[in-house]
Write a structure and sequence with these properties.
Distance between the termini: 39 Å
Structural class: mainly beta
Number of helices: 1
Helix content: under 10%
Shape: elongated
Strand content: 35-45%
Number of strands: 32
Radius of gyration: 26 Å
């Protein structure tokens, strides 16, 4: 939300605040790390991304068949995994998630299972087995193939947890969502192959919000469009909305939904009901640009982490402080050096600070530079001419977009 308005007034005139319209949230680039390779901090196709309550970042390094763990600033911490079918090994893993206790869950796609680890990679347990394969990966006999068996998995691509510690799996090969306890005990499932509400085709990504609602991305509805479907924690359909092709979705503490736009090299943000809120990115290898963004994750501070697959890196973004709103000031004639101009402003973001400047005709250079300021900002003795007052908010190194007010000082 934008702050309540500021008032531009003459000398000792009174003021008031009004509630301005909501504005879209903007995001600013913070840092990035990674390059192509198999060394620590390098990636061979970064896929799923997850964060834990301590702010650590986990990345599925697909071609290198491993998980890498980093600090929120990109400093490498540890890694685990190799290609294979044993405990702690992976084959084509895509999805990753953490629970409130800090445990890590990996959707080990080609091994048709979920593996659970400690935050440092120690193996805890596993579950799920292909509905069409035996425990050794071979085809079952005709009488043994039961594609609808509870708890069995066929090419799981996504995994998510809720605040209660339940685990949700995007069971792609079986066109359904399965819900488990933290130790893999089956609870329920929902879905079937199709394009209508509650059905799935090419189900890929999944996440749960703080209220326990579950968001599922599948690539084809009844009209062939990619979409996100929202469900209760037990699978009751709530709503849906179309999006461009995505390879990652995530939710934040406020229930907003983020999706990586794989085709247009962007990140899109929606409300919990699917209303569009923000978009950033663009094709390229510069800061804030992407080449095939895949996994996306949000930490407890609202920072956004994106697996930039084509550039073999992770990029971190932070929400910019909202733009301070300025209310239109009264119009009138003022006499040179006998008028005092007040600008009042505030931010809805706790801890935000402000920078102000003045531009226009016959404005001293020192007033044209951005400087820290407080509300109310006063100007007096201004020379005649057209003026523009600017104000912007800053927070933890991020600088928001400015608002401005134009007026004219007369003789």
């Amino acid at each position: 939300m934008r702050a309540a308005g500021a008032l531009f007034l003459l000398v000792a005139t009174g003021f008031f605040f009004t509630a301005p319209p909501a504005q879209a949230q903007d995001y600013g680039f913070v840092t990035m790390w990674g390059s192509q390779g198999s060394g620590d901090g390098q990636f061979g196709s970064a896929q799923g991304v997850a964060t834990d309550v301590a702010g650590n970042v986990y990345v599925i390094d697909w071609l290198n068949a491993r998980v890498q763990k980093f600090k929120s600033n990109g400093r490498f911490l540890t890694k685990w995994g190799s290609k294979g079918t044993g405990d702690g090994q992976f084959d084509g893993a895509f999805g990753i998630a953490t629970d409130p206790a800090g445990n890590v869950y990996v959707a080990d796609t080609s091994n048709d299972r979920i593996q659970k680890f400690t935050s440092n990679g120690a193996f805890i347990t596993k579950w799920g087995r292909s509905a069409g394969r035996d425990s050794f990966g071979g085809a079952r006999s005709v009488g043994e193939v039961r594609s609808g068996d509870d708890g069995q998995l066929e090419s799981p691509l996504g995994v998510a947890t809720d605040p209660a510690g339940n685990v949700y799996v995007a069971d792609s090969g079986n066109h359904r969502v399965q819900k488990f306890t933290a130790n893999g005990a089956f609870i329920t499932n929902w879905g079937s192959e199709g394009g209508f509400n509650g059905q799935f085709r090419l189900i890929r990504e999944i996440d749960a919000d703080a209220a326990g609602n579950v968001y599922v991305y599948d690539q084809q509805d009844s009209g062939g469009h990619p979409r996100i479907q929202k469900f209760t924690s037990n699978g009751a359909f709530i709503t849906k909305w179309d999006i461009p092709q995505s390879h990652g979705i995530a939710t934040d503490a406020a229930g907003n939904v983020y999706a990586s736009d794989f085709i247009n090299d962007a990140i899109r943000k929606f409300t919990a009901s699917g209303a569009f809120r923000a978009k950033w990115g663009g094709s390229g290898d510069g800061k804030g640009q992407f080449v095939y963004p895949t996994g996306v994750a949000i930490d407890v501070a609202g920072n956004v982490y994106v697996a930039d697959e084509g550039n073999n890196r992770i990029q971190k973004f932070a929400p910019l402080p909202p733009r301070p709103a300025l209310k239109k000031g009264p119009k009138g004639k003022t006499k040179k050096r006998k008028a005092v101009f007040f600008f009042r402003f505030r931010s809805p973001t706790p801890g935000a600070r402000f920078q102000c400047r003045l531009t226009g005709q016959r404005v001293p250079k020192k007033q044209k530079r951005w400087r820290r300021c407080r509300s109310p900002k006063r100007y007096k003795g201004l020379r005649p001419g057209r003026k523009v007052f600017w104000v912007r908010a800053t927070l933890r190194g991020q600088v928001g977009k400015p608002d401005k007010r134009r007026w004219r000082v007369l003789r």
